[in-house]
Every structure is written in structure tokens, then in C-alpha cells.
Amino acid sequence: MVKIAPSLLAADFTRLAEEVLKVEQGGADLLHLDIMDGHFVPNLTFGAPVVAALRQVSKLPFDVHLMITNPQDHINAFIKAGADLITVHAETHPHLHRLLQTIKDQGVRAGIALNPSTPLVTIEEVLPYVDMVLLMSVNPGFGGQQFISTVLDKIRRLRQMITERNLPVVIEVDGGINAETAPAVIAAGATILVAGSAVYGAVDAAQAIASLKGLD
User: Fold this and answer.
1) Residues that constitute the known binding site for substrate
2) Residue 124, Cβ neighbours under 10 Å: how many?
3) Which among 34, 69, 94, 210 is least surrounded, fewest beta carbons within 10 Å?
4) What is the active site of this protein (predicted)?
């Protein structure tokens, strides 16, 4: 049941197409695309044109994570570029129902993300309207950060909320995921793991992905 979503943020940006194909052939389940605006988070990455270009070379589902202010202004561009799932941060918008419905009305799955310090109660009312909840286990904006261990309890509590309501919502965790932290994250209830340097920094991407799934 565990799926691995390599984060392109950790790839070699001088040869992105090759880097995408490497993880696709290595057994990745999704491709995680971190979109940063230098405002909501202190970094810039890439936009919809890069996503559209990569869509031409990959069949992987594109897991587009919008770490941006005013996500409503950019959702259509990323859907047009080929996103299969768009995740927005609860911290960025006061009208989450409307935002999520905008995504789902266009036939794309919708996710909601929470920073480590944002409580679960923030998304309690919109939980029935999402396909996925992304819990950040680092403060977003940079790759290679250390896993925040207190997020494990947050994963367990979210899993309980989902189970009690019998909702078809999956939990994704992003930040500091590696062979050491993955087992605890999976045990807590997550089913999608975002991994950057643990995959792209490995000698063998396929072996790294299998290890994160616990299949090695």
C-alpha cells in the first residue's frame, strides 16, 4: 500500500527529463513537484511551463504541491500543464471549500497541506472534500532538512480522524524521509512518502525506492 513520490527538488536541474525517467524506471509511484514562490516559502523553484515539459516525457502521476501565496490564481495553469493531483496549503487561503472544489471540478484530485506547526483542527471541516492530506515533517522551503519527530503523533491523530469518519483520504508525508524515518511514518499511518535526497542522492534509485517501501 505504501507509495513513494520522489521530489524533483532534489534532482539535477541540468537534466530534469533524465532525472524523471530515472525514478519512473526505478519504481516510483508518483512524481512530487514542489512549486515555491519565494513568498509563502523562502525559495523559488519552477512553474507550470516546466511541469508541462516534463509531462511530455513521463507517464507518472504528477503530484503538484503548491507552496505559494494566492494558489487560486495558478491552479488552472498547473491543471493545463498536466497535474493529476494538486495540493494547496491550508495556511494560504481563507476559503478552502471553494479552492478545493475549483480543483475537483476540473477532474483533478485535491490535497490539503499543513505545516508542522499548523494544527489538524484547521482542516477538520474540509476533510470530507479532499483526496489527500499532506503533512509537512519539516518547515517547507528547502530540501535536505531533518525530520521533525513530533509529526508522528500528528500522523496518528489524522489517521484516527480519517478512520472514524470512514473517509477515502490518504496521508502523504513530506520532509526528512529516508530509510531510518520511513518505517515510523508508515507505522503511524501514512501511505505516500515524499523523498528527495533519499532517492536522488542514492547510487541506485530503484534500490532506494524499494528500501523506503520496506521491500529490500
Assistant:
1) 7, 65, 141-144, 174-176, 196-197
2) 11
3) 94
4) 34, 174
Distance of alpha carbon 143 from alpha carbon 136, whole angstroms: 12
Q: What residue segments make up the domains of the chain, in order of their start? A: 3-212
Binding positions for a divalent metal cation are: 32, 34, 65, 174
- Of the candidates 161, 10, 3, 141, the residue with the CA atom closest to the CA atom of residue 84: 3
Helix (H, G, I), strand (E, B) or coil at 115: coil
Q: Are 36 and 68 in contact (CB under 8 A)?
A: yes
Over residues 117-142, the pLDDT tens digits come to 999 999 999 999 999 999 999 998 76
| Residues marked as catalytic | 34, 174
pTM over 0.90: yes
| Phi, psi angle pair for 41, to nearest 5° | -130, 155
CATH code of the domain occupying 3-212: 3.20.20.70
For residue range 140-198, what is the model confidence (pLDDT) as tens digits? 876 667 899 999 999 999 999 999 999 999 999 999 999 999 999 999 999 999 999 99
